[in-house]
Structure formats: C-alpha cells, structure tokens
Amino acid sequence: MQKQPRRTLVLLFATVLAGLFILQFGTFIDRATPALIDDHDILYPLGDQPTATLHEIWTDLKNTDEYQELANSGSATRFRPAFYPLKSIKTYLLGSNIRLWYIANFLLYLGTTTLLFSLVLRTFGIPSALVFAALYLGHKSWADIFPRLGPVEIECILVGTFLIWLLWRWIETGRASALWLAIPTALLFGATKEADSPMLIAIGGLLLVSGFLSGTKRMVSAGAVLVVTGAIVFAIMLRITATAGTGLVAPWGPLWSYRHHHNRDALAWLVLVPILVLAAAAIARRSGWLKMSRGELAALVLAALSVEVLRLTLYYISFSMTYGGQNDAIGMRYGYPLALMQGIVAAVVFGRLAKDGDRRVALLSGATAIGCFVAVLFANHGLFSPNTFATRDWWLRFNTDADNTVSEATRLLYEARKENRNPVLIATGPALEWEPKLSLILFLRRKMPDMVVYFDPNEQSSNALHYSKLSIKLGGTPLPPETRASLVERGCILVHVDEREAADPNCKVLNITTINGRPVP
C-alpha cells in the first residue's frame, strides 16, 4: 500500500478508536476515583500528599518487598524486577491524580494498538488490519485491563508492543539496529512478569521453526533472540524466586478449566477459521492457484495451531491464581497474550494468502478476513466485548461507593469533633490480609492524616503477624484492649468492606458491599 493512503487510514483508525474510547469510557474516566483493589500501590509512596519527590519515590522503590527479600535472603516471593521501576516512574509523573492515570493508560492503549494496526496494514493490507483490530480489541480479557490501574499487563503492553515493532522492522527491512535494540527490550519484557520469560521462549521457538520452514533467515534470528533472552531471564527467575516451583501443577486441573470455559469465549471459534482456510489453501496450492512454498504453508499452519496451544498454556500458568481454574483465565488479564496472538496470526494468515495467491485466492482470503471482522462485531454487539462494559460499570460503582463511604466517615468524625467528641475510627474486613481492607486503612489515613485509623489484629488471618505489620505500614494502628473497652463511652465509626454487611452495637457502621456484585470472568 502506498505511504500517503496508508497514513490516512492509520489516522482514521486512531481517530475512530479515540472516539470509541471517549464514548465508552469518558464518563468512567471523568468520575475516576482510587480503587480499593490495586491502587494502594500508587498512593502509598505519596503519603498524604498529591505528589512525591524523586527522593521519596526512590526510597519507596528500594523498600519494595521483593527487593528487600532479595537483599536480605537472596530470594524473593515474586519475580517482577522491571515492573516496579516502570510503576515508580508513573507514580512520580502522575501523582495521586487518578483521572490522569486513566488518561495516560488509554493514550497508551490508543498508541500501541494504532502502531500494531499500522504494521499489519503496511505489510498485509486493509482486510488483515481490520481482522487484527477486531480480534485484538474485541477480546474479553480487556474487561480486566481497561477499568484498572494495577495489572502488570499494562506495562507489558508498552514494552511488548515496542518489542514487536523492533522485530517486525528487522524481519521486514533487515535493519540491524532493530535487532540489537530488541535484545535489551526482550530482557526488560521478560523481567516484567513471571510468565513473560516462558512466553518469550515459546514465541521465539515458533518464530525459529516458522522461519526455518519458510526459509526466512531474519525470522530465524528474531526467534533466536527471543529464545536466548527468555532462557536467560527464566534461569535468573528460577535462581532467585523462592516460589518458582509452586506454579507447577498437575495438568488435569488446567485441562478441565480449558474445557469448562472454552465455550464462554464468544470468539474462540474464530481460531478455527484460519486453520480451515489453510486447509483450503493446501488444495489451492496443488491446483496451482497459490504460489507458496510447502514450508511456508506449514509455518502458517503451525502458527494457526499455536493459538489454541497458547490458550491451554494460559490456563495452566494461571491455574493457581484463578481459584483452581474456577475463574476463566482468558476472561481476565491473563488472557491478554491470546488476544494479541490470535489477532496477529489471523492477520498474517489472511495477508500471506492474499499476497501469494492468484486473484481468486486473494479475493476469497480478503472476503474471509472481512467476514471475521463482521463476525466479531456481531458476537460482541460492537467492537468491545460485553464483558468489558459490565466490568467497567462494576468498577465505577465499587470505586464510587468506597470514595463516598470514606468521605462520609470523614464528615461524621469532623462533626463529632465540633461537638467535642473524639470517636474511634476502625477499618475492618473479612480477613486481616484482605487487600480491599488493607487499602481502606491507607485511604482513610490519607483522607484524615490527623486521625488514628485502628484495625482489629484479632481478625482471622493465615499470617497474623505479617499482615499486622503490613497494616501498620499502611497507616493502621492495632486496636488496644483499653480502647476497645471505651467504644461505648467515646463512640465509634466502623468502616467495613466485605461481600456482606457488618453490624456492631457499639459503633456507627458504614458498609462497602458493592464488591459483592463483581462480574464473574
């Protein structure tokens, strides 16, 4: 495609996507407030201030639990060394302005998606670019990414898209600088999340085999870069991560989860379309309608089959994080690699067949790609998955409920002080370690820096000592027996976050229970 029409189409795509983001998420961003899930990591380094100095951010980064564990014992419970600096940079730049955080993230989604769309459009044409955009943005894993600020996948999208651009540039143009830059980028990507290094090895292996089959040397070298960098990061992870082996589970559970949830993915059947098209392409090749080597056709078949293998792999590596496979990993942020892979593979299959086939094959390939694009729009009743909107609405309700409740607690306390009363403020939840309860302590402390926020150290817990220390770190104070005995006399405001309401005859209870309506992935 010529440069000027391509630029016009890319600009048109970016404009339409930006409009969709504003239309579907404008109200959500306008009413953005911190979430009790995830956002304590953003607010903690800031203290009770809207921003933090570079020194404060650096001090917080050095005190990250995983870094401290590694420094003190030589091992850590998690392996995300590249994630924390990226998050710290965003915290330094954006501070406590949650609306600005969401705007920055949606600009990231807009920019990375447009870049990928541009690559596919330039190489394979309009039908492939459209089917990529539909399968990528229409996947339901975005439901667990768009409305949130915490998922590591956000940083993975940034680094991963840049890595794809570098390798695409190398394979297509032979620019050696792109290949050399891909090496540190791949190392950074692998160190962002535990599952990224095995992903590099797997995708690198696919590129190696596909490049060998198709006779594309630059694809072989790109695959080698991913395999080697992935293996290096994976070896380091095994060496320093104390729990690296705990993710190994028997295959039967993930296999059950794969079968159980497969039909819930409205776009899962579209994985079969490229496979069926390639089966027809094999017949067309024998009839002389397709000028494609047997090796390249085999490489495309391997790529198409790898999508379903990736789906099963994601169920396996996320099994322990989805309550034994009860939650659908593909409908959560863990399914993002499938959205990316499914879209790229479909675009490559349709694009290569259109380029190497005669007029009939090219028309049929383009028509099938457009058909898949339309099928996504029908299945989702639009571009984005219905799960995305259900989850968006829930996050808005939950975050608004939490913000209103914290504000109400503040109002009640200040009114009591005007009457020369000094009630006790307590934050509670179903368990000492429950993340929304821990965040609630921090949120109350930020809202009322001069107020003591108590927590009950006797709440049920799997590790009471550790989570009591964490509660104290976030600004809480253990509720002492003498204060507990004076609740009736002093009065008490108890803020409780849980799936069920709490009751306490000695306290004015403010419940945050909208978490109960969270959509099931």
Describe what you observe in this structure:
It is built from 21 helices and 5 strands. With 521 residues, the chain is mostly helical. The chain has a 5-stranded parallel sheet. α1 runs antiparallel to α6, α12 crosses α14 and α14 packs antiparallel against α15. The chain is elongated and about 90 Å long. The model has no long low-confidence stretch (mean pLDDT 92).
Tell me the helix content: 55-70%
> Tally the helices: what do you get?
21
Biggest sheet statistics: 5 strands, parallel
Return the average pLDDT rounded to an integer.
92
Structural class: mainly alpha
DSSP strand count? 5
N-C termini distance: 40 Å
Described by the principal axes of the CA atoms, the overall outline is elongated
**Low-confidence segments:** none
Strand content: under 5%
Lateral strand order in the biggest sheet: 3-2-1-4-5
State Rg: 26 Å
Helix and strand sequence: HHHHHHHHHHHHHHHHHEHEHEHHEE
Offer a concise description of the structure.
By secondary structure, this protein is mainly alpha-helical. The protein has helices at 3-30, 40-43, 54-62, 65-73, 83-94, 98-124, 126-137, 153-173, 176-190, 196-214, 217-240, 252-262, 272-286, 294-317, 336-356, 359-380, 386-418, 435-447, 464-473, 481-485, 487-490, and strands at residues 424-428, 453-455, 476-478, 492-497, 508-512.
Provide key terms for this protein.
521 residues, mainly alpha, 5-stranded parallel sheet, 5 strands, 65% helix, transmembrane, Glycosyltransferase RgtA/B/C/D-like domain-containing protein, transmembrane helix, membrane
